[in-house]
Amino acid sequence: MSGEESGERRVLSLFEGFGIELEYMIVDAGTLDVKPIADRLIEAESGAIENEIERGPFAWSNELARHVIEVKTNGPVPGFAGVGDGFAAELRRIEALLAPMGARILPTAMHPWMDAARDFELWPHGSHEIYDAFHRIFDCRGHGWANLQSAHLNLPFANDDEFGRLHAAIRAILPILPALAASSPCVDGRISGFMDTRLDVYRSNARRVPSVSGSVVPEPVFTRADYQGLLSSIYADIAPLDPEGLLQHEWLNARGAIARFDRMALEIRVLDVQETPAADVAIHAAITASLRALCRMDAAGQARLRALDTRALAEILRATTKEAERADVVDGDYLAALGFDRQARRASDLWCELLERDFAEDPLYRALRGPLDVIRDEGTLSTRILQRLRRQSGSRSGPTGSPSRDHLTAVWRELADCLREGRMLRAER
Fold it and tell me: What distance in Å separates the CA atoms of residue 360 and residue 356, rounded to the nearest whole number?
């Protein structure tokens, strides 16, 4: 991640810039079934089929699956103010191009009834040899490859010290991110029992080469040299299946946060996409505020962060993957490393404390607090989706079951309308 200054490119330091990437499904406007026409969309905008097109401060691209369109900031932006409105304008342009094709875009991190084996189509255009290699090695006809739409947050670092601070902070905050961002409670036409089903299927999508995703939580590496050692071990593990070395690049690492030394940024990848970009941007700003506070900790605080055990962090992530904001965070060492007392609390309460401590006094909070207030008061998008499904069916049952297709369609059609209209889905308690 780099910027321009006096005509010369310079590396950005911590929190001098931010990159956001949001992925959406393209679906049939009538049925909401998956419609793999991202190449036709890009061609309609640019006149040619390309992997990526630039539109001023934003860009559109596709990776792997033909039904996914990724909208992203075209390089780093200096702050979060106004970014949600920019994304909304891009989505309006996409919807206008898709309408004559009988299609629209759908939010949330997983399509609720997609048949991944039947509906998945591999991107056949530029860089397709990379996707072909992934498909040959891992078989991408599964939800862990074909049906997961995420939001990525990129944060810059300028040197080893900044990398170490930022990586330590991200490792600490990553396990509780589903408590803010879970939006995938349904798969294969049923309620899965996981609030963040995308993360549940993601953790095993590379099981043929387990080191590719590891424990999803990154290992405690805090220098570029140590990180390169981790990458070298992953490359060695996949080499027998990738003799041409097509996949031996930084992006092969599929942990929940990865270093991109090619642009001097760390990329957080565990966030489910929301029902409106305003919510994504608010969540990203809240996360960034807490990361900034953790990066500023003194030497003793840094030592506590760096001592956090990967397996313990992965246990917390498993809990929030299943229960999102209702997960209990009981690890005293973890809570102390974040700067709180060791008393167990719900993940939702922990986020309230983090927001109050790290973000509430920031003027940006007043501009972005609307979506955060909804999440605080009514729960993650997964929670609100489940409440809507129960309201549709009149059920008071627990978080498993098979809603009717009509009920699923009604809820996801409103989610698509939320995306189009820039509003949050409300629980309607």
Answer: 5
Whole-angstrom distance, CA of residue 377 vs CA of residue 1: 35
Is residue 384's pLDDT more than 90?
yes
**Tokens 């973890």 label which residue?**
334
Which of 158, 194, 160 is CA-nearest to residue 326? 194
- The confidence score (pLDDT) of residue 7 equals 41
DSSP class of residue 261?
A: T
Tell me the chain's radius of gyration from C-alpha atoms: 20
CA–CA distances in Å: residue 338 to residues 19, 204, 334, 415:
25, 28, 6, 34
Determine which of 40-44, 244-248, 255-259, 401-405 has the lowest per-residue pLDDT on average.
401-405
Fold of 2-416: Creatine Kinase; Chain A, domain 2 (3.30.590)
Q: Return the closest-CA partner of residue 382 out of 165, 179, 106, 218.
A: 179
Rounding to the nearest 10 degrees, give the CA dihedral for residues 353, 359, 363, 369. -60
List alpha helices for 185-331, DSSP H. 197-202, 224-238, 277-295, 299-306, 310-323
Asked whether the predicted pLDDT for residue 303 surpasses 80, the reply is yes
Tokens of 289: 């505020």
Q: Tokens 């990203």 — which residue?
A: 284
Distance of alpha carbon 238 from alpha carbon 233, whole angstroms = 9
